[in-house]
Amino acid sequence: MKLSFTTLGCPGWSLDQIVRNAVEYGFDAIDFRGLQGEMNVWKLPELSTNVKESLALIKDAGLKVSCFSSSVQAVSAEKFEQNLEEVKEYTRLCEAFGTPYIRVFGGKIGDLDRTEATRLIVKHLKEMAQIAAASGAKVLVETHDDWTDCRYMQPVMEQVNHEGAGVLWDLHHPYRTIGEKPEDTWNALGQWIEYTHVKDSVKVDGTGRRHPHKYVLTGQGDIPLKGMFQLLKDKGYEGYYVYEWEKAWYLEELEEPEVAFPQYAQYMRSASEELR
């Protein structure tokens, strides 16, 4: 198993800390989703004027940058130009770091009917995919928000039909939020799945909470992770298993990254040994 983590889980760490701890805990790569409070990481010196030094730091540590996770909401017509510029910024970073992927969200469809929303996201993703592909990268649409359901995502990918577009399977969201069976997700989207997010949770009373579930340390919830890993192995998946510990969004509720990250890496090593 190739292990990565998103920096959403360590919002207080500097780049030096990220690299040092990634090595210590046994990760193979880093997925940039913010850095010390700045979500648009291309604005930071570490990923602009000092990019050569940052690349050397990461490469010398034996690590890779597996993905740049954007805030792009691909369905949005209002923010389309802004989203294109963001994709261009991340494409530049993909070139610099040898990174293959840019994560995008499908986004909320609001008052749009599903047919119009599908038309818009297909149109927008084709343009984003063309920009990414010109530099050898891909935009990956996450199974998230109004595109969690594989029945909505499948026709999008069929119509986009571009080498510069793929799917990021967040193993948690389809199962937890709509009860989608992992086998159904794979059967619908497997040909496009190149990247995964891993997290665990338990159901809770949703009153006063953002979601009716609570994130917990890996293996301590009831997401059938090991079954998902077996499915992925059986289907020939060779991509990253990326820990998405949403510490930045749940600062007081979630364990510190110094606890959660090494626990994840240990759990995944054990799970890997158990796979048939």
TrEMBL record:
Alphabetized UniProt keyword annotations: Isomerase
Pfam families per the UniProt record, alphabetical: AP_endonuc_2 (PF01261)
All copies of domain Xylose isomerase-like TIM barrel, residue ranges: 19-256
Protein name as annotated: Sugar phosphate isomerase/epimerase
Signal sequence extent: none
Organism: Paenibacillus radicis (ex Xue et al. 2023)
Keyword Magnesium attributed: no
Keyword Isomerase applies: yes
GO MF entries: isomerase activity
